[in-house]
Amino acid sequence: MQGHLVVDEDHCTGCGSCMLACSLEKEGKFSLFLSRIQVARNEEKAQFTPAVCIQCSEAPCITACPVEALSRDETTGAIKLNRALCTGCRQCVTACPYGGVQFDQTRDIPLICDLCGGTPACVEACQLPHAITYVQDVTGEAT
Amino acid sequence: MNTSYPGRLLIVDLSSGTIHNEHISPERLTSFLGGRGVGVKLLWDLVSGSTDPLGKENALLVIPGALSGTSAPCSGRTTLLAKSPATGRYLKSNIGGWIGVSLKLAGIDGLVFTGKSAQPVYLSLSSKGWQLHPADDLWGQGVRPTTRALKEKHGADVEVMCIGPAGERLVKFASVMTSYYNAAARGGIGAVMGSKNLKAVVVDAAMGELTVADPNGFARAVKRARDLLYNDSIAEDLHKFGTARDVDALNELRILPSYNFQKSHISGEVGRISGRAWPDLGYLKGIVGCAGCIYSCHRFTRIDSGKYAGTYSGGPEYETVASFGSGCGLLDPEPVFVANYLCNDLGLDTISTGNVIQWAMESVQRGVLSRTDCDGIDLQFGNGDAVIEMVKNIAYRHGLGNLLAEGVAHAAEQIGQGSQRWAIQARGLEQSRVETRGAYAYALAFAVNPRGPDHLHSECLAEFGGTKEGRALVKRVAGDERYAVPNIEDKRAEIVRWHEDIYAVSDALGLCAFTTTAAYSLQEELIAEILKTATSIDLGPEELLKVGRRIITLERCFNLRDGLCPESDDILPWRIMHEPQPDLPGGGEPITPERLKRMLSEYYRLHGWDTHGFPTTTTLQELNLTFASPELSDAYDNCK
Questions:
Q1: Residue B545 lies in a domain
Q2: Per the omega criterion (within 30 degrees of 0), is the bond before B333 cis?
Q3: Pseudo-torsion of CA B239, B449, B411, B182, nearest 10°?
Q4: pLDDT in tens, A55-110
Q5: Between A and B, how many residue pairs show a Cβ–Cβ distance under 8 A?
Q6: A135, B70, B447, B570: which sits with the fewest CB atoms below 10 Å from its CB?
Q7: Chain mean position to CA B510
Q8: In degrees rounded to 5, what are phi and psi of residue B95?
Q9: Do B463 and B424 fall within a single domain?
Q10: What is the pLDDT of residue B252?
Q11: Cβ of A24 and B98 within 8 Å?
């Protein structure tokens, strides 16, 4: 089972439910900066732009990492971080053309979506707007 | 201290410019939770009967819900409280957007503003600290330029809550705004903020964090809540078409307040002022959600061409459409959009603004006001440009606008000539756009609402029986689905009491009332589970509703202490009580004083209040409100 997230900014309402759900799932608490998905909000014009790792097949972040701390999880297809190796150099953040790699300044580590093992918390929190879809590559099914 | 809910208040004395923080005791958090609950107890302690609402002795409270900042669905709402300059009594006014969530993430569970600054100021805060800044350059600016300027100075990601020119000029129905177009609209809360020379609050939550007591249990409870809410009958429609989606359907049902409640049906092409039509008409440019909302009911509209081209804002909501649209006799949505934008930018409540304009229009219709009295504006029903001019004149207090800015009760008192009969207000607050002659639970709820006749203390939608969830709720609280009809007296007290309780709980927790009293899917048991896993406050469903009852009863005590006499004050607008509405199905008899009295008697009895509408000593003991008892004895003697 391999998959990735697809975001549709035209459907994003800027509610941030995805960010709150993500930080709870991954960190056990609520914060905006700890969320793997980030939504840039401009309420004045109702323009909302979600950014999240799309699990590129040729991932620039993996290539950019000088210490091979990033690799692909063979089961889920998600990019995973080996924290023991990571030096916090942020080259993965810079290398990502989609703004999909966040950086936790408090711990000096990148935050990359791991697809929650196949049931992404952000998707579950966005069922009415449908701005985030989880696409499973093998079957082509969307959830 | 409860580590997952510390109850940290920031106390800002605007007279001295000093700021310190205090913690609410765990016992008080358990008794009142947060938001409106914590707020009413603070207000009880801080403000007394002699307090001038626009004097420095009034307090302004900003209290996010106990669940705000978490991923509990639709939990981002915040309650603002003060003594109301419109009614002189208790006021809570609830706001969405991101301000409450940001406060919670920044580690603040509430703001308390006291005193009055000598010069205009604004407060900035984050998890790292706080500061008052001069705001002379912002004073006089609208909500949009103020928000832009503060984001430019403090960063694009900060949240701004501010007043516009109407709040600065102490308009009695000025709003507080956040995220450009989310309003704490009712009761003149913006005038209180203006009276303190407080222009804005800026919150930077970027590096903030919030913990919950049991993250895994919380995630499971929230998942259950979301699944229920996604599957509710109203979910899809509310998201796609917003609160104004059914204006044309309400008109078909002949329950759409029109022409200042002279009619409940408007002839002509009503479809264009219905939210359902806006996508096809090209006005709908986006859908916006408040922080943590899974429904996202807010519209974002823009006019692309014609004489109002370029106007854009959030909304309009149902109340705004019924206020400026059918209320002012407008079937063209464009002047409604413009009036909505102006209210959002000038900081005005759209309900009261539309209401006072309708009163002036009817005064013109009846020959009580001349065109000269209206500063040359042709204030006829159906004149969109006249409505737009009047909105501006009210905010800036020009001409007749200066009189209307004092509220419809005051304006009618000044003009006289019987115009009090078409001033659609009670206790100083303009009624919201519900045809209460055809909705008896709403009528009862409006008569006892501590801030005045509106739907935001007890949204009794279930009495219409429009959804299966609403009918099931009526069966649960009244014993049978057959009571889910709006124009009978039976069981209205039961229906109102449950809605009041759950609404107060929702406000205390920061939950949007749409999750509990429109969707009806999120009910006591699951809310209690979410609360427990988030904060360790462990209340069963009955105890949770009891917190709601405690809040409502203390609000009642606050007003009684301030001189409210139930006999003369638990009333509805004159027109609703004395004139029929023949447009209504079934004849539309008025809610006569006798009819209202019958429903009130039952309501008092259910609450454990005496026949005069005062909570009994036993009731106060049961709700742990005995501290209020000694303060009611003088009030009791004065009323009898």
A1: yes
A2: no
A3: -30
A4: 998 999 999 999 999 999 888 889 999 999 999 999 999 999 999 999 999 999 99
A5: 110
A6: A135
A7: 13
A8: -130, 150
A9: no
A10: 96
A11: no
Q: What is the DSSP letter of B158?
A: -
| Phi, psi angle pair for A29, to nearest 5° | -155, 175
- Would you say residue B590 has pLDDT above 70? yes
Average confidence (pLDDT) over B437-449: 98
Same-domain status, B551 and B586: yes
Nearest to B298 by CA among B289, B306, B308: B289
Span B57-78, pLDDT tens digits:
999 999 999 999 999 999 999 9
The DSSP H or E segment spanning B110 is strand B110-114
**pLDDT > 90? residue B308:** yes
Q: What is the pTM of this model?
A: 0.98
| DSSP letter (8 states) at residue B522 | S
- Give the per-residue pLDDT at B69: 98
Sign of CA pseudo-dihedral B94, B100, B104, B106: negative
Parse chain A into domains and list their residue ranges.
3-136
**Structural contact between residues B300 and B284, judged by C-beta atoms closer than 8 angstroms:** yes
Domain's final residue, options B413, B430, B447: B430
Burial class of residue B128 in the structure, from the number of CB atoms within 10 Å of its CB (0-12 exposed, 13-18 middle, 19+ buried):
exposed
**Which positions in chain B touch A43 (Cβ < 8 Å)?**
97, 179-181, 288, 314
A44 in contact with chain B, both atoms CB, cutoff 8 A: yes
B295 and B326 both lie in a single domain: yes
Q: How many domains does chain B have?
A: 3
Angle at B90 between CA B84 and CA B91, to 5 degrees: 60
Q: What type of residue sits at position B443? A: A
Q: Which domain, by its residues, includes B122?
A: 8-204
| Domain presence at residue B96 | yes
Whether the CB of A135 is below 8 Å from some CB of chain B: the reply is: no
ipTM of the complex: 0.96
Q: Is residue B219 part of a domain?
A: no
Give yes or no for A31 touching B (CB within 8 A). Answer: yes
Residues B418 and B440 reside in one and the same domain: no
Q: Does A125 touch chain B (CB under 8 A)?
A: yes
Which of B180, B206, B288 is nearest residue A13 as measured by Cβ atoms? B288
Q: Is the same domain home to B513 and B611?
A: yes
A143 pLDDT band, cuts 50/70/90, is very low
Residue with the two structure tokens 């940290």? B8
- Residue B616 domain-assigned (yes or no): yes
User: What is the CATH number for B47?
Assistant: 3.60.9.10
pLDDT (tens digit per residue) in B183-231: 999 999 999 999 999 999 999 999 999 999 999 999 999 999 999 999 9
pLDDT digits (tens, 9 = 90+) for B332-364: 999 999 999 999 999 999 999 999 999 999 999
Domain shared by B457 and B530, yes or no: yes
Distance from C-alpha of B198 to C-alpha of B176, rounded to nearest angstrom: 11
CB contacts, 8 Å: B512 with chain A: none
Average pLDDT over residues B268-288: 97
Distance CA(A81)–CA(A112), nearest Å, equals: 8
Measured distance CA(B350)–CA(B632) in Å, rounded: 35
Query: Is the domain of B248 the same as that of B298?
Result: yes
In the structure, what pLDDT confidence band is assigned to residue B634 with cuts at 50, 70 and 90?
Answer: confident
Please name the residue that has the structure tokens 């990735």.
A4
Structure tokens at B170: 């102490």
Class of CATH domain A3-136? alpha beta
For residue B217, the tally of other CB atoms under 10 A from its CB is 15
Token look-up 């605007």 returns B14
Assess whether B194 and B256 both reside in one domain: no
Question: Looking at residue A3, what DSSP letter applies?
Answer: E
What does residue B287 show for φ and ψ, rounded to 5 degrees?
A: -120, 135
Q: What pairs with residue B436 in β-bridges?
A: none
Per-residue confidence at A140, pLDDT binned at 50, 70, 90? very low
Give mean pLDDT, residues B447-456.
97
What CATH number does the domain containing B348 carry? 1.10.569.10
